[in-house]
Structures are given as C-alpha cells and as structure tokens.
Amino acid sequence: MFIEQGIKSENKFWKYILGSILIIFASFAGQLPLLIALLYETFVNGKPYPTSNESIMRFFEPNLTLLLILISFVFIMIGIILVVRYLHNQTMLSVTTSRTKIDWRRVGFSFSIWSIFTVVSTLSFYFSNPADFVFNFKPVPFAILALIGIVLIPVQTSSEEYIFRGYLMQGFANLAKNKWFPLLMTSIIFGGMHIFNPEVSKIGYIVLVYYIGTGLLLGVITLMDEGMELALGFHAANNLVGALLITSDWSAFQTHSIFKDISDPSAGVDVILPVVIIYPILLFIFSKKYKWTDWQEKLSGKIY
C-alpha cells in the first residue's frame, strides 16, 4: 500500500518537520538566481528595486521571469531527493507509487485527459466571451515559452506533488496512523500555500476553495490509485497547458501565451465549477478505468 510505505519505526514525525525545513532552505537557495538578477539590474543598470511580488513579476521580460522562478523548483526537487534518501532512508519510488516501477501510462493518461479538458474549456470561454480575451500569440516568444515550460514546469509540478501527495502524505500518516488526516491536512496546506498568489488579492479568499479542492482531488486519486502517477500527470497538464494557452495581468504566471484574459476577475463559475462538477466527473472516469473499490477504507481507514 502506497501510504504505508513511509510507516517505519525509525520514521518519526520530527524527521518530517526537519525534512520540510531542509526543503524550504533548498527553495531559498533556488531563489538566489532571481535575487542576483534583481540586484544586478538595481545596482548596475539603476532600476528601482521592486517592492512587491506583483512588481517582481513585471520586472523582467516574462520568459526570463518564468525561467528564474522555475529554476528554484530544480533546487527543491534536489532537496526532496536528498531528504527522502538520507534522512528517511527511503527510495524515491517508495514516495511515488506502490507499484514496482512508475506507471508512465497512468501519467500520460491523466496528462492527456486534463490537457484536452483545459483546451476545450479555454476555447469555449474564448468563443462565448470574445470581448474578454485578446489574441496574444507571438511566434518567437511563444516558442521560448514552450521550451522553458516543457522542460521546467513538470519539475515544478512534480516537486509540489512529491512534497504534498508523497512526502507529507506519508509523514502525516506516521503521525495519525490513519488516512483521512493526511488527506485533509495535505489538501489544506496545499491550498493555503497559494494564499499569496496575486489572484487571491484580486478575486478574494473564495478562490482558495478551488485550490483546496484541487489538493483534495489530487490526494483522493493518489490514495485510491495507490500512487502519485495520476496526480503527476494532472498537475503537469494543468500548469503547462494553462501557461501556454492563457495569461492575465493578475495571474501567478505572466507568460507569452496564446490568449490574454482582460476581463475583471471575479469568483464565478470558473472557481466553483471544477470543484463541484468537473472533479467528480474526473474521479468517475479514473475509478472506472482503474477499477477502484473500497473507497471508505482507502480514504479514511486506519493504519496498523
């Protein structure tokens, strides 16, 4: 069983607290390239130093900003690997899946189905409300965006999945000796980590329903499928295809995407619809394809 693979007598919860601190330090180290670039522009080229996250996002050319931000996740991934291997004496496979090897077909299926949904829903919004969008496509900047995104966005999304659906899921299982508590805690923390995203200040805290709901979806499919493969594919598709398709002045990523949303942000159907309708449909598709059973035990059962 996937979540039980981290349950060891020597794997005390304090190790997960220490490991999380070490991963945070890795994140800080990964932000040094961005800091160095900011200081260079400030002291060498005389630009005023940005005083907010929003001004930092607009300080450099969008592709350069995206590259500098995503580099930090390379450091985070290295930190996760080192913490899992040397602090917990586990393999990366053990925090990825209960299978003997990673099932890349599962990753591909999840990536494909969510990519299709993202493309179809974006085009539907575009054609139904064309005044809310501008065509933003520029071949060369988009090609550079695609290269950066294809290489580094899966690193970003995978590092988040390894932290929440892998490392912390097993960590909270060590603490609580059940499955509902890790599912709930990782979903809340995952959603809470997005509280500083610019769309929260624009739309309001109601958008956290979407983020926590997404964390809950990813936790459920991880527990039901006994591995992170479906979550890895979903998260990569969500961020990569989203970054390539659409951007806005108030989104977390400013990109040279195909479309730009110029509408006034509001907590509307795009916040609530995925959580209450789309995600349950996705769960139904996964459950039928992979023949999931015994939902209550897998999502809330005790660990002995």
From TrEMBL:
<keyword id="KW-0472">Membrane</keyword>
<feature type="transmembrane region" description="Helical">
    <location>
        <begin position="203"/>
        <end position="223"/>
    </location>
</feature>
<dbReference type="GO" id="GO:0080120">
    <property type="term" value="P:CAAX-box protein maturation"/>
</dbReference>
<dbReference type="GO" id="GO:0008237">
    <property type="term" value="F:metallopeptidase activity"/>
</dbReference>
<feature type="transmembrane region" description="Helical">
    <location>
        <begin position="107"/>
        <end position="128"/>
    </location>
</feature>
<feature type="transmembrane region" description="Helical">
    <location>
        <begin position="64"/>
        <end position="87"/>
    </location>
</feature>
<feature type="transmembrane region" description="Helical">
    <location>
        <begin position="267"/>
        <end position="286"/>
    </location>
</feature>
<keyword id="KW-0482">Metalloprotease</keyword>
<feature type="transmembrane region" description="Helical">
    <location>
        <begin position="140"/>
        <end position="159"/>
    </location>
</feature>
<keyword id="KW-0378">Hydrolase</keyword>
<dbReference type="Pfam" id="PF02517">
    <property type="entry name" value="Rce1-like"/>
</dbReference>
<feature type="transmembrane region" description="Helical">
    <location>
        <begin position="230"/>
        <end position="247"/>
    </location>
</feature>
<feature type="transmembrane region" description="Helical">
    <location>
        <begin position="16"/>
        <end position="40"/>
    </location>
</feature>
<feature type="domain" description="CAAX prenyl protease 2/Lysostaphin resistance protein A-like">
    <location>
        <begin position="146"/>
        <end position="241"/>
    </location>
</feature>
<dbReference type="GO" id="GO:0006508">
    <property type="term" value="P:proteolysis"/>
</dbReference>
<dbReference type="GO" id="GO:0004175">
    <property type="term" value="F:endopeptidase activity"/>
</dbReference>
<keyword id="KW-1133">Transmembrane helix</keyword>
<feature type="transmembrane region" description="Helical">
    <location>
        <begin position="180"/>
        <end position="197"/>
    </location>
</feature>
<keyword id="KW-0812">Transmembrane</keyword>
<dbReference type="InterPro" id="IPR003675">
    <property type="entry name" value="Rce1/LyrA-like_dom"/>
</dbReference>
<protein>
    <submittedName>
        <fullName>CPBP family intramembrane metalloprotease</fullName>
    </submittedName>
</protein>
<keyword id="KW-0645">Protease</keyword>
